[in-house]
């Protein structure tokens, strides 16, 4: 592992190297075990046991990631070197660095919260195969983790497909529901096309450089001085951007999201909104930063164009997402459109590029991603409660929630404040740090767009608050809150507040430990 | 030592004690919530009074200042070379000076009186007082915060409770009014945040030398740091990029200063409100419960003027100086527009709403004068209008509870059935039109006197507005007290004790400021010295 010069020869995986894959192994082992267990369990046995075992697997994997993270930190705590060398596996196609580890922890935590929340709310009659529902989340998370660690186009694509294919199945799990089938079909078609676009775009990169490793691509660009056919590079970048644009549901590539989010079982919707989106954003982040700065050709400001394009995509996502959400009455569709706007917020740190005084991109991205994960999963958990008690997920279902479940209403208010970016919540500081980064970089126009989009979003977030606190449904029967779902709601609410009161440790950790040069860039 | 007690923090957060007590109150005792909340508003009031008495204008409020670092987040410094630390600092910094102090007193007085006046609230009492106390924390924090981001957070903290207070306890169109309030003010604070961030990354940049070689870089929103950096010709914010090797992103060019100043003007102009950004506040005045309008008109609008003075004018004196004519013009437009429209309104609440716009115009005039007299006048006008409009809406709330309407054509002849309340209303109306001996007179006189020095022509036009104000105010107040006696109104009871007490207290303060304005001006004495020194003409007070 970790050779001084990157070699493109594929070294075989040694037993010692295999240990670095422990988090992924654990998930896969649990996946196979649970698939078999599901076959042999009696039909009458509750599938909750599979849910709890899935949760165990996720937590164990989290432990493994955390252990590696701490181990590397201690190994590097000698003089001079703040962090140990990045672990490069399989010719630098799979990297274990702080950026990847941080994201893996986010994905695993998100998946664990989602499993916990489903234990209380997913009903047998709704999802006939509850066993599949739980254990299929495991390979999906493995896919997301691969995308976070990928240093090579092929690895990236394999991770992406692993995540996509499993989520296609998960979206369609409500077999008897027409909406779910429609959603699954739409998701397969658009997702498939997007994957094809990404692959096509990758082929241009390979064609221009003859390499698939991010670092090797960057080296090839550097050694070429001037790229022979910049037009082809642009074509490839456009294709990649379009494909990833669909995956992260950034406008104008977002049209599938409301339908799919509405049709999927609510916990799976949360998974799409947090893990699937986050993984694609992370992969874009690494890919763009690794190769973006090195391509050059006379007369073509390639690097500037790439980053400008990302900011334009971010602006479009923010504007379209918030304005479209204004007229939305269905909660899951509304959160889908809010997710479009949030994809825009998360694109900004990537699009801001690097300046001498501004290199905190990973910190801004990571902090907001974590805040977004907490508030979004919390909000979806509340939506699933309302859905369960009302049989629908329209905005009106929230009416009188203050009387029917006062504590849950308060938790939801915290999530809404965080989504709207109001103090004192994680969402506020997340947005503040991104805005600060934009101001430091002098990208004032994106700052203005982001602030404007936040204000517009007040309207629909507070429309939910209005339903909860100002309207009444007539019947004040309490909404039952299953214990596990309640736990998820309050973990998310508490952490959202904690991030809003003491944001320093998290942001400082990320900015001090995740180095752009050694962790993020593949060189 | 008294100075060791964090008195300012105690003032800001003492309402939370009441919040806790109300929250823990069992449902069956909900009717006690009002007294607990009222008691909780008395704590900051008492502390503020004590502070007011102990305040020494000569030394200023520096000994009460509190400073703690809240957020000190590292930024990525891998491209900066040899740097010890590179951070974003958010200070928990509170401070008081002659400008904050009168407004602080206004806030605590109005909040206590509004808590008493909330007897009319009949539903969901506990939640009402919870939001009310959160609102008070926000307002107190706004006037004491000395860090841009902290100020912004307190400012936003007033937004959320107001949304619920209007939307749940308001009148028929309450939800629309709440939404409109939220969007307009959200927009205002968003513009403010942009301006603040531009300030943080330029004037807020600090280089500190620690030890031999290590340099500490930080971005800070601290007001003191901003003032220091703006005043220091060697600070990065004032160094033209050519003067520094390799350029600097911290320099604030002339056009950028103008941009930030205009952004601040727009942000606080919405809150003030400056014509044409006033439509939201009309809705709030009509639809919100009267005790909340007391707070809104009495304190929240003042936050706009305060912010404009503290951040717009103090930080950008050069820009204000060349902009003073436009500022005065905006003030005159507000003054006349509000007065003329108040004259034709049929709803008494709308008369008062337009009258607020008109009176806030006078504040703008005082600010635009940029001399000691005018600025003093503006601050006195802020406090005076806060007290007067709180009193007027207190009476309106009591009237509306009894008559069920505030339509001027239906109200009339209250002097017979309710002599006490009619007397108070008449006195408040006279204070509002600036009768000598009442507080309104002092503020208007000083603001216009100040303006006369710099913009005599506009002052002449402004006086016209003052005459109009007498016309519209007397027209409606006299119609209510003396006009046509309505049969169904003759049985009304006069003010109850809980209504009478806040009326008397507010009126007493109005009279006190009217006959002895030094209670306000003495702490103000040195507050503007720094600003006046910055202006090219120099100060004359």
From TrEMBL, chain A:
Superkingdom assignment: Bacteria
Keywords linked to the UniProt accession: Cell membrane, Membrane, NAD, Quinone, Translocase, Transmembrane, Transmembrane helix, Transport
Catalytic activity: a quinone + NADH + 5 H(+)(in) = a quinol + NAD(+) + 4 H(+)(out)
EC identifiers of the protein: 7.1.1.-
All residue ranges annotated as the NADH:quinone oxidoreductase/Mrp antiporter transmembrane domain in the record: 150-457
Bilayer topology: Multi-pass membrane protein
MF-aspect GO terms: NADH dehydrogenase (quinone) (non-electrogenic) activity; NADH dehydrogenase (ubiquinone) activity; quinone binding
One GO BP: ATP synthesis coupled electron transport
GO cellular component terms listed in the entry, alphabetical order: plasma membrane
Transmembrane spans: 20-42, 49-70, 99-121, 133-150, 156-173, 185-206, 232-256, 268-294, 306-327, 334-354, 366-386, 407-430, 442-462, 483-502
Subcellular localization, as worded in the UniProt entry: Cell membrane; Membrane
Name of a matching Pfam family: Proton_antipo_M
Family: Belongs to the complex I subunit 2 family.
Subunit structure: NDH-1 is composed of 14 different subunits. Subunits NuoA, H, J, K, L, M, N constitute the membrane sector of the complex.
Function: NDH-1 shuttles electrons from NADH, via FMN and iron-sulfur (Fe-S) centers, to quinones in the respiratory chain. The immediate electron acceptor for the enzyme in this species is believed to be a menaquinone. Couples the redox reaction to proton translocation (for every two electrons transferred, four hydrogen ions are translocated across the cytoplasmic membrane), and thus conserves the redox energy in a proton gradient.
Name of the protein this chain belongs to: NADH-quinone oxidoreductase subunit N
TrEMBL record, chain B:
Record's bilayer topology term: Multi-pass membrane protein
Name of this protein: NADH-quinone oxidoreductase subunit M
Family the UniProt entry places it in: Belongs to the complex I subunit 4 family.
CC terms in the record's Gene Ontology section: plasma membrane
An example Gene Ontology molecular-function term: NADH dehydrogenase (ubiquinone) activity
Superkingdom of source: Bacteria
Entry's Gene Ontology BP terms: ATP synthesis coupled electron transport; electron transport coupled proton transport
Residue ranges of every copy of the NADH:quinone oxidoreductase/Mrp antiporter transmembrane domain listed in the record: 145-468
